[in-house]
Write a structure and sequence with these properties.
single chain, 225 residues, mainly alpha, Muramoyl-pentapeptide Carboxypeptidase, domain 1, 0% strand, rod-shaped
């Protein structure tokens, strides 16, 4: 039994020595740690080559300003629409009932007014439109073409009728007040003639006739041609 025990002890010594040599040659060079009796003391070699770890690519962010948001249209002020409806109806445009509600007939009336005034046709109520309706603007011809509105023409001079002027002078001398002796047949002159005709028992038509001229000549002795 002593020989067997000695052989077993020798084999165990060889196995242990082999394991130590294997661990020293291979496992400590980074090939494994299965046979290392003290894994905590195993030296791990680190390569001198830097390792580049790719960072995760951030997902694309969409700018808030680029996102289209459907914002509901703001209703027009009731007072503004009602005033425009009232002014359009006063000008003969069919803007519907002046209740401040923006309807199709109101939009059509605004468009018709803008077109008639030479404005850009929008059909939209605005403060500028109301101001134009309330205050008025130059005619569209002068506004759209840029030309200056023509100056008001002076009234044409009334032709002087010498016969009328002579009759006025005579009636004035007789106290009938025909107005100024300007040769123009006006209402005052006609009234004076009618008064003279009434006093002389003539037909009161207020006109200068041969009968009137003969009567004036008979009364005053002046011949009027």
């Amino acid at each position: 039994m002593g020989v067997v025990s000695a052989r077993l002890a020798f084999l165990a010594f060889l196995g242990l020595t082999g394991a130590i040599i294997y661990n020293a040659l291979y496992l400590q060079e980074g090939h494994g740690t299965a046979m290392n009796p003290n894994p905590a003391s195993t030296r791990v070699s680190v390569s001198d080559t830097p390792v580049i770890v790719p960072l995760p690519t951030p997902s694309p962010q969409v700018a808030t300003s680029d996102v289209r948001k459907d914002v509901p249209a703001q209703p027009e002020p009731v007072e503004l629409v009602r005033d425009i409806q009232t002014e359009l109806k006063a000008r003969g445009y069919d803007a519907g009932e002046a209740d401040g509600r923006m309807r199709d007939d109101t939009k059509a009336a605004i468009s018709a007014y803008e077109k008639a005034e030479g404005l850009p046709v929008t059909g939209v109520p605005s403060d500028q439109l109301l101001a134009r309706l309330l205050l008025g603007q130059p005619s569209k011809t002068a506004a759209t073409t840029g030309s200056v509105a023509p100056a008001p023409q002076a009234p044409k001079p009334v032709a002087i009728d010498n016969t009328v002027k002579s009759v006025q002078q005579v009636l004035s001398d007789l106290g009938y007040d025909p107005g100024p002796s300007d040769g123009a047949m006006g209402a005052t002159t006609k009234t004076a003639i009618e008064a003279f005709q009434r006093d002389r028992k003539l037909v009161q038509d207020g006109r200068i006739t041969p009968v009137l001229l003969r009567e004036i000549k008979r009364v005053t002795g002046k011949s009027i041609e």
